[in-house]
Write a structure and sequence with these properties.
Blueprint lengths: L1 E7 L21 H12 L2 E7 L5 H6 L5 E2 L7 H4 L2 E3 L4 E10 L14 E5 L3 H6 L6 E5 L5 H11 L4 E5 H4 L8 E13 L2 E3 L3 H16 L2 H9 L7 H5 L4
Helix pairs in contact: 1-7, 1-8
Length: about 240
């Protein structure tokens, strides 16, 4: 059977994805399930290439992976490096603080040390907070865990990540959800520039699993508390 190599980090960020229990061969969560669904539509199986966050796109560029499928918001800085498929999901962004912190709005971030992944849509949001001190994270095997520990320890006052992984943490005794920004970020699969055959295949497969309801079924399995962004996704068809 044909194999598609997909770059991603190995991190506990449910329901998006969770730590692999078999060395990265299989991975639980929404993103891995959608990736396997789309690959299956192409008659292929997925081989996960587990890498630090900062090495995922370089791995696609130099051929170690066929594509990066790992929380990639479609933003200009990434579009300069890889070509993106049509979106397969849309998320907002949330700010997490330590339990008891009173911050509940962007203006409350004045003087706060705010952590986010370097070069991400989350960091772009942090840049809009007035007088916040930005703390970029990256070059780690598990950058999400690093940011959580930084909030927990007080190394930063707040962190930003996507609502799907951050909102549930607001129910944990250590953290509070400060607020969610309705940024409606579109995520896609990053393919090496010039690999138009794979790009077109993935676009077609994403469209088919969206149209026949299979993508929505995976969403409902992992994220029943969030509304499925079907209208937005269908409007992005190519």
């Amino acid at each position: 059977m044909r194999t598609i190599k997909l770059a991603c980090i190995d991190s506990a960020a449910p329901p998006l994805f969770d730590l692999s229990t078999d060395g990265g061969k299989t991975r639980p969560g929404f993103e891995p399930d959608v990736a396997v669904l789309v690959a299956g539509e192409l008659g292929a199986e997925v081989e996960w290439v587990i890498l630090p966050w900062d090495d995922m796109i370089p791995a696609v560029q130099d051929g170690r992976a066929d594509a990066v499928w790992c929380g990639q918001g479609i933003i200009p800085s990434r579009q300069e490096l890889v070509d993106f498929t049509r979106p397969y999901t849309v998320f907002n962004e949330s700010v997490l603080v330590r339990a008891g912190d009173p911050a509940r709005a962007p203006e409350d971030m004045r003087g706060y040390r705010v952590g986010a992944i370097a070069g991400s849509t989350n960091m772009k949001l942090a840049e809009t907070f007035p007088e916040a001190e930005l703390v970029p994270f990256g070059a780690s095997d598990d950058v999400f865990a690093d940011m959580l520990e930084a909030v927990r320890s007080g190394a930063v006052d707040a962190m930003i990540d996507d609502d799907v992984v951050t909102v549930p943490l607001g129910d944990e005794p250590e953290f509070d959800l400060a607020f969610t920004a309705q940024t409606r970020n579109k995520w896609g699969v990053g393919v090496r520039k010039g690999n138009t055959e794979l790009l077109e295949e993935l676009n077609g497969a994403i469209g088919r699993v969206l149209d026949d309801g299979r993508l929505e079924a995976v969403w409902a399995k992992w994220m029943p508390h969030l509304p499925f962004p079907g209208e937005t996704l269908r409007g992005e068809g190519s």
